Amino acid sequence: MTARAVTEATFDQEVLSNDKAVLVDFWAEWCGPCRAVSPILDQIATEHSDKLDIVKLNVDENPGLAMKYQITAIPAMKVFKGGEVVRTVIGAKPKPILEQDLAEFIG
C-alpha cells in the first residue's frame, strides 16, 4: 500500500471522518524534500496500514486546504484523529526519526 492522493473534494471523507489516525502529507511537485520523504511515507503506510492511514495533498492543486491548515512550509505532515490535528511534523526526516514522531500512532 502506498499513500493515496486526497483533494478538497475527498478530504472530509478520507481524513476528517476516518476512524483511524490519518497522516496528511502536504506536498508539491516542485518540492525536492517532498519527493525525498515520499518513499519513506509509502514504507510507513505499508508497514502500519492497520493503525495509520497516510494520504498526500498537493498544496498547489488544493490551496484552500493548505490555507485552512496554515501550511507555510513543505513538506508538512499533520496527523488527524477524530477530525482534529493532533500532531504536526515539518520537514523531510529519515525514516527512524519519522517513526519516532509517529510512535503514538503506529506503536
UniProtKB/TrEMBL annotation:
Pfam family, one: Thioredoxin
Residue stretches making up the Thioredoxin domain: 1-107
Keyword tags: Disulfide bond, Electron transport, Redox-active center, Transport
Domain of life: Bacteria
Database matches in NCBIfam families: thioredoxin
UniProt similarity note: Belongs to the thioredoxin family.
Protein name as catalogued: Thioredoxin
Annotated source species: Agromyces tropicus
Lineage of source species: Bacteria, Bacillati, Actinomycetota, Actinomycetes, Micrococcales
Gene from which this protein is expressed: trxA_1
